[in-house]
Amino acid sequence: MKQRQKVLLGVLVVLLLILGWVYLVPGGGDDAAPARAPGRTAGAVDPDAGLAAAPARPAAGGFAVVSASDAAPGAPQTVEPLRLAALSRTPPGFITGRDPWRFVEPPPPPPPKPKVPSAAELRAMREAEEARQRLLAEQARLQAIEDARPKPPPFTWSYLGNFGPPSLRIAVFSDGKRVWNARQGETLENKFIVAQIGYESVDIRFVGFPDVPAERLAVKH
Question: Whole-model pTM?
Answer without folding.
Answer: 0.37
